[in-house]
Amino acid sequence: MSLTSTVTDHVRIITVNADRIDAAMAIQFKEDMRTETEGGPDRVILDLSTVNFIDSSGLGAIVASMKQLEANRSLDLAGLTPVVDKVFRLTRMDTVFNLFPSLDDALAATADH
């Protein structure tokens, strides 16, 4: 699992550099997310624009990543491909996370947070 992280405008942007988040990489994803989100800005945006497939393990890893953040911090999701977006909506995770069509849309909403 390869994640890259940058901080801009008081937001940490973590980009997933993989085409899938599944059972084979869920544990590594959670560990990498924990490392990337230790400290830093209150808002974290996870850019999923390269992810074309996510299974229940991947979904669980993203939820676990959100839960391990301090109470005053948030995890928003951006750039969901149609298949990944459908998984989040079918599992009603769209009521748990703020979903944005693109990273630019998520960043534009920063003022609202």
> Tell me, what's the shape?
globular
CATH fourth-tier homologous superfamily? STAS domain
- What is the strand arrangement across the widest sheet? 1-2-4-6-7
* Main sheet summary: 5 strands, mixed
Name given to the CATH architecture: 2-Layer Sandwich
Detailed description of the structure:
- By secondary structure, the chain is α/β, with parallel strands linked by helices.
- The protein has a single domain (3-102), classed as Transcription Regulator spoIIAA.
- 35% of the residues lie in helices and 25% in strands.
- The protein has helices at residues 26-37, 56-67, 82-90, 103-108; strands spanning 3-8, 11-16, 20-21, 43-47, 53-54, 74-78, 99-100.
- The strands form 2 sheets. Strands 1-2-4-6-7 form a 5-stranded mixed β-sheet.
- α1 (26-37) packs parallel to α2.
- The longest helix has 12 residues, at 26-37.
- The termini are far apart.
- The mean pLDDT is 93.
- InterPro entries: Anti-sigma_ant, STAS_dom, STAS_dom_sf.
